[in-house]
Amino acid sequence: MMKSSRKHPPTLARVKAEARRSPMTPEDRRAAGKTLRDAVPRAAHGAWQAHAGRADPLAILRAADVTRQPDLVPLRYGRMLQTPFTFYRGSAGVMAADLAPTPATGIYVQACGDAHLMNFGGFATPERLLILDVNDLDETLPAPWEWDVKRLVTSFMLAARSNGLSDANGRDAAIACARSYRRTMREFSGMDVLETWYARLDAETFMAMMPQSQKAVAAKRIAKATARASSELVYPKLVEEAGGQPRIHDTPPTIFHPEEFRAAGYMDLVRGVSAQYRETLAEDRRVLFDRYELVDVAAKVVGIGSVGTLCLVVLMMSVAGHPLFLQVKEANASVLEAYAGKSAYAHHGERVVQGQRLMQPASDLFLGWATGPKGRHFYVRQLRDVKVSVLVETYNAEMLSIYAKACGWVLARAHAKAGDPWMISGYLGSKDHFDEAMGKFALAYADQAEQDHAALKAAVRAGSIDVNLER
């Protein structure tokens, strides 16, 4: 077992070298994690100050525009312009650059890459159990575990401000999130690895955490979402009859058929991509997929950070005449790659799919990937499969902290599943040093996000950035 040295504080490289010389037990790993505090004190994570050479956040955003559809870029900036919180949701690349030089232990996990609180929510497992988990993994990549935690806690501070709550309330939520992450990681470090893979936060457990006043509304929303198949619920909203055939209804600028989609041969092109996607499914799911027929394809604008990347909604009908909606999302390089290293997967759709399978307790039946026209990478999943979004904008201080605890639990489980819960837990310890540091970081970086949002507003006023403000 390693001994700490104040003169030569241990690094992860030394820990790994020790592990190669002799296999490390969970107890050894916890002890090794504890020694990393000498090199990276837990309190050091609380510091944030923009350094003199900090890259221009707007330049980072605009550099990413080259991979987006030009006509949708103003819509993206219009959504980011609304509040500092919406700016934050669309600026994962900015924060990735800012996190790279911050203190980190060097312990990598399968990271979300964009772990703000709106990327968590309720969805159904293939067994039809409703769970709360991370549900947007476009940026997933192996990276330092601290980066996800810092992005998540900061989102609670910004959400508190957006809801008119005090910074003290935001800090409490950030600390509650970090404390839940630390304690949950400690629990998983004491479990058998198989138990960790089976663990999940179901709707019943989350509702038990909620105050009595919130439970009836939550139960009603869950009952509505699970009463019928999601595609059956979505069908009347998205589809119209045209010439006796179902067709996705255009509601621009969010859902529409681009001119190229109407061209002769386009559906044959989509069928070719579908055949390629089919090969990424497990054999039993290919049998299921083959019982559906392609009917229509439309472009769909989603989220904030994804606006401008190509996203499609695909309508399929079963042999029995029932609908299935698939979402096809373009996958580009993760914003973390420049700082954490390139993905092991050359195909970014596969990167997202494999990361999702590693981080989630259960993933969508139709999760797969394909390469589209012009070499674009895509991943595929069901559209809104029993999706229950959290109504964060309605949360008071109590409910925000409850949700923060749930997200902290979920993120710890995701990191523990394919990471090193023993070493991370050994580093975090049983006291609140790291939790308090996250409260400080959340406050400081929320201030930074507000300054960056102000810079975007100034650029819009100056006419250097065009925006499309939705009505």
Describe the structure.
By secondary structure, this protein is α+β, with helices and mostly antiparallel strands. It folds into three domains: 1-39, no CATH class; 48-225 and 390-461, no CATH class; 228-382, no CATH class. It has 19 helices and 13 strands. It has helices at residues 12-21, 26-35, 57-64, 73-81, 84-89, 92-99, 145-162, 167-189, 193-198, 203-209, 212-226, 230-238, 266-278, 283-289, 337-340, 348-359, 397-418, 421-428, 433-461, and strands at 108-111, 120-124, 130-134, 141-144, 201-202, 239-242, 245-248, 255-256, 292-300, 311-318, 323-330, 368-371, 377-382. The strands form four sheets. Strands 8-9-10-11-13-12 form a six-stranded antiparallel β-sheet, with helices on both faces. A three-stranded antiparallel β-sheet has the order 2-3-5. Strands 1-4 form a two-stranded antiparallel ribbon. Strand 6 (239-242) and strand 7 form a beta hairpin. Helix 2 packs across helix 18 (421-428) and helix 8 (167-189) runs parallel beside helix 17 (397-418). The radius of gyration is 23 Å and the shape is globular.
